[in-house]
Amino acid sequence: MAETATEGFVTALKGYHNSATFSDAVIRCGNKEFKTHRLVLSSHSGFFVKMCTGKHILWVRLTGVPYFQESETGIITLEEADERVVEAMVYFLYHFDYSNTQGISSMVFNAQMYSLADRYMIAALKHIAKEKFETAIKTGWAMDDFLLAITDVYESTPEDDRGLRDLVLDVSHTNLGKLLENARFQELLRDTPRFAAEMVSYGPEKSRRDAAERYRCPSCTKVNILEWQRGSYFYCAHCNSRRSDWGSYQV
Amino acid sequence: MASRARMKPIRRPAAKNRETSDFEPCWHLLRSAMIDIHTKNAGGLSFEALYRASYKIVLRKKGELLYTEVKSFEEAWFRDHVMPPIAELITNNLINISLIQAPGTSLHERRQMGEKFLRGVRDAWVEHNLNMNMIADVMMYLDRAYTAETKQPSIFAATIGLFRDHILRNTLSASSQEQLTHEFIVFDILNAVVLDLINMERDGDIIDRNLLKKITSMLEDLYETDEEIDDQKLYLRVFEPRYLQASKAFYRRECERLVRDSDAGTWLRHCRRRLIEESDRCGTTISLLTSEKISKVIETELVMAKLGEFLAMEGSGLKGMIDNDRIEDLSILYELIARVDPSMAPLKATLQSRIMELGLEIEKNLKNTDFSVPANGGGADGDDGADAVDKAKAQPLTVAAQQTAAAIKWVDDVLTLKDKFDNLWSNCFQEDLVLQSSITKSFSDFINVFNRSSEYVSLFIDDNLKRGTKSKTEAEVDAVLDKAIILLRYLTDRDMFERYYQKHLARRLLHNKSDIDTEKDMVSRMRSEMGNAFTSKFEGMFKDMELSKDLSENYRDHIRQLGDVDTKKVDLGIHVLTTNNWPPEVMGRSANQEEGSKVQCTYPPAVKRLQDSFYKFYLKDRSGRVLTWVGSAGTADIKCVFPKVPGKETGPLSKERRYELNVSTYGMIILLLFNDLAEGESLSFEEIQATTNIPPQDLQRNLASLSIAPKARVLLKEPFSKSVKPTDKFSFNTQFASKSMKIKAPTITAISKVEGDDERRETERKNDQTRSHVIDAAIVRIMKARKQLGHTALTTEVITQLANRFKPEISLIKKRIEDLLNREYLERVEGETAVYRYLA
What we know:
The complex is a heterodimer of chains A (about 250) and B (about 850).
Chain A: H1 7-14, E1 25-29, E2 32-36, H2 38-44, H3 46-53, H4 58-63, H5 69-73, E3 75-77, H6 83-95, H7 106-119, H8 123-140, H9 145-156, H10 162-174, H11 176-180, H12 183-191, H13 193-211, E4 213-216, E5 223-226, E6 234-235, E7 242-243
Chain B: H1 2-7, H2 18-21, H3 23-38, H4 47-59, H5 63-89, H6 92-100, H7 107-138, H8 140-147, H9 155-168, H10 186-202, H11 209-221, H12 234-261, H13 264-284, H14 291-304, H15 307-311, H16 318-323, H17 327-340, H18 345-368, H19 389-394, H20 399-427, H21 433-449, H22 453-471, H23 474-490, H24 494-510, H25 516-530, H26 532-562, H27 605-621, E1 635-642, E2 657-664, H28 665-675, E3 682-684, H29 685-692, H30 696-707, E4 715-718, E5 729-732, E6 742-744, H31 757-786, E7 788-790, H32 791-802, H33 810-822, E8 826-828, E9 835-838
Parallel strand pairs in B: 2-6
Antiparallel strand pairs in B: 1-2, 3-5, 4-5, 7-9, 8-9
Helix pairs in contact in B: 3-4, 4-8, 5-7, 5-8, 5-9, 6-10, 7-9, 7-10, 7-11, 11-12, 12-14, 13-14, 13-17, 14-17, 18-20, 18-21, 20-21, 20-22, 22-23, 22-24, 23-25, 24-26, 25-26, 31-32, 31-33
C-alpha cells in the first residue's frame, strides 16, 4: 500500500506535532509556544542545526565554554514574525503543508510565509508558499490587500530573490489598466520605487523573453536568452564564445 | 474578504526608512556579540537575535558592508589578542634550535621548547577555529544570500585564513638573526619543530603525538587561499613535501648506517618495523593522506637503496638465507620486494643462479662420491638376489650397481633441493607465480645441463619399482612416483627418457621384477602429464604381457587336450612381443640390425619341437604372423639332477641332489648340451658357440653366470678365472651343491645398470637418428600446410611443434632441411634467400 518508502514515517511524524513526547525544544513567538523536536527542526533547515548544535561540539563540552543560549535552554524565541504565520510554519514542519486558518488575507499570509521560510532557510516551505501565493494573487489581485502583499514582497525578500517579485509583476502587468484606476496603487508605485522601476521595464522584458528562447552556454554554463535561428551563430553574452549549435543547448 | 483583511491587519515590520537606519543597531549588536564570543561570554547570547540582526542587514542590501566589517573586526582582534602570545613563544632560542640547528642544547631541552611552541600554536588555533565557527554560524544568512551570490569566500574561510596569513606566514624579519641567510616565516619554524620531534620519536623518544596530530590537522584545515581549493591544503602544499624530504634524508642516513654496521637480517626486520611505524604514524601523528607517500620513501631509501649490497652480504645475505632456510628473513624480503618490484627481479636473479649453483654442485658431488662402498641398508644394491644382501656388504659393488647408486643419489639430491625450494616458495614467497616459474626454469636448466638426467630419472623409477613390491608401503611408493613425475616435468629431452624407460620397463616386465599394478599406475601418471603419444609404447608393452599370459594358458590347455606327453615335461611360458613397442635391445637386434642379419641361435631339438608346436597353435587364430624367438630375453627353469658323487659318504655330495635352476634361455641351451656329454668330457667355448650359434658376447655372459658365480656354478671352467675367454673349456660340475632348492643363475642382462660411456654414445646416436626422422616429419607436415615458408619461420615452427618431446638442435634442423631439399621434398624459392616451397 505504501506509495513511497517514506509514507509511514511521514504519517507518524504528524503525530508529534506540538507533542510533548520526546520534545526537546520549544519555539516561542509572541504569546504562543510550540513543543518541537530538535531533530525535526534540524532536518528542515541549517538554521536550526546551528541553533541547536552547540552542546554537541566536543570542544565546548570539554572546556565548558557555552555556545549560544538556545542550545543550552532549548527555548527558541522567534521575534519580528507574526505568531500566526509562525504557527502555520511549525505546522508545516510536521505536515509538509499548511493552511491559512486565521482569516488573514491569504495573499499577505503567503507572502509573509515565503519571507519567513527564506529567513529560516526552509526550502520546501518556501516552495509551497510561492505556489499558494501565486494562486492567491491570480484570483485576488483586484482586492486592496494585493497592494499590501506587494509591499510585503518588496520589503521582506532579498532583491535577488525573484520568486514572488516576478509573480507580482506579471499579475500587475496583466491587469495594469484596472490597477491604475486605483489611487492606492498609484500611491504604492510612488512609495515603492523599486516596484515602480521593475514595472516599467517588465513589459518589454517580458515580450522579449516570450519571443526568445533560453540556451545554456556549454563553455561557461550560463544561460543566454537569444533569438537564435538554425544556421546563424551567436556569441555567448557571458564568455564570448561563438557557436552556431545553440539548438543543442536549449533549456 | 478584502475588508476582513483590513479589519485584522497583520503585524508587520513597519517604518519605511529602515534600509539605512537598521544597519547601525544591528551591527552594534553583532559586534558586541563577537567580542563576547572571543572572550568566552557567549553563553547568554541568543542565536536567533544575532542571526536576525545579520539577516536584516543582508535583506537591506548591506551584506557587503557587513562582510568587510566582520573581516576587519577579526583582523584587528587577531592582531591585538591572538598574535602577541604566539610571538612571545617564538624566542631567539627556538629559532636557533629549529632553523639553524645550533649546537649546545640537549635533546630534552629541544623537545620541551618545541612542544611548548606547538602547544601555544595549537591552543590559539583551537580557539580561533571555534570562534570563527560560531561567528560564521551567526552569519549564515550572509553567506547564503550575499557571499555565495557574489562568489566570495565564505565568512568562515575569510576569517579562518587569518591564522595562515598572520601567524604561519608572519615573516621573522624583526628577529636579529645574523646567521639566517634569508627570511623565514613562522611556518618554517613550525615545520622544523614538527620534523625534529618526529625524528626524535624515530630515534626512540616519546613525544606528544596528540599535539602533533592537532597541528597537522590544522594544516589540513587550512588552504593556500581563501578559495579553499581541495588540493591546496597547506598540509599537502607545504608540510608534506618537507616531511617527505626530511624523512628521505633520515632514512638515507639510517640505511647507510645499517649497511655499515648490521647484517641483512637486521636490516630486513628494521625495514619491516619502519614501514609499520610510519604507517601507524600517519594514523596517530600526521595524516593518512601521507601513508602511501611515506611508504614510498622507505621503499626507495631504506629498501631499494642498498638492496644489492644487503643481498650480497656474506653469510646473512640472500645466499645465506637460502642455504640456511631462514624462513622469516626470506618472508620479509619477499614482502619488501613485492612492494617495490612486482617483477621480483632482484630476488629472481639470485634465486635462479643459486639453484643453478646448487644443481651443478649435485653433479659435482656425484663425481666425487665413491660408490664402491655400499650405501646404508644395501639401498644401492643393484642385484636383486635376496641372499646376496649379506654378501654385498662385504664385497665392493659391481660397476653397474655403483652407477645405479649414483643415479639414485642424484635423483634424491635433486628432489631434496626441489623440496627445499618448494618449502621456501610456499612459506616465504606466498606462492608467487613469477618466482615459481623462475624456480622451475632454473631446475629445468640444471637438470638438462646434466647429460645423464633422462637415464637417471628412469633408473630411479626402475630401482623403486623393483624394490617397491618388496619393502615399501603403497603410500611410500606413491610418493616416489609423484616425485618421479615432478622430475619428468623438468626434462626437455623426453624422447631420450622414453627410450630409457622403455628399456628398463622391458626388463622389469620380462623378468617379472615389479608389481604390474604399480607399473600401470606410473604409466597412467605419465600419460596425464605428457599425453597419450608418449605412453602408447608402454601401454602396448602391458598389453603384450597380458595377451601373452592368456596365450600361454591357452597353449597349456591345448597341449593337455592333445595329451601329448612327448614334450618331456617342458612347460612353455611365452611372451609374444610386438616389435614396435619393445626396445630393440630386448628384441635381439641391437647392433646387428644394421648388418641386416638376425642371428638365430640353434635350439636343441626338444625346444625346437616345442617352438614348432606353439607356432602352429599360434597361427591357428592369427595367420600370416611371424614369430622370432628371442633367446636373450627369456628364462628357463631347469630341473637338474646331480648324481651322488662316488666316494663321498657324508655331506650333501653323498646323496643325489635335485635342484631347480633358473637360467636364461641361452643358459638353458648351453646346459642342455652338457646333458648328452659323457662324464669327464668337456666342451670348448668355440664348440659351444658353433653348436648353439649364440652370439659370442651373450655366450660369454651366460657362461660366466654358470661357471663363475659360486652359487650357481654348475659348470666348471678350465682354466678357472674371473672371466670367460674364447679358449676356455667347460665341463659339468658334478661336485655342485647348494643349500637352497631353487637356484637362480645371476642373469647379467637383467640388471638395469647405468650405461657405460660407449653404450650411452650409442643410445644418443640412435636417439639422434630417431630425432632426425621426427624432425623430417615435422618439416614436411609444416610445409605441406604452409606451402611456402622462410627458413627462420620454419625453424621456429619445428621447435614449437616438438617442444613437448625434445629440444631439437638448430644445426640438426638445418641439416634435415638440406636433406629434404636434396630428396626433393622441398625446393628453394628463386630470387629469395632462405625461403622454401613444398613440392607435392
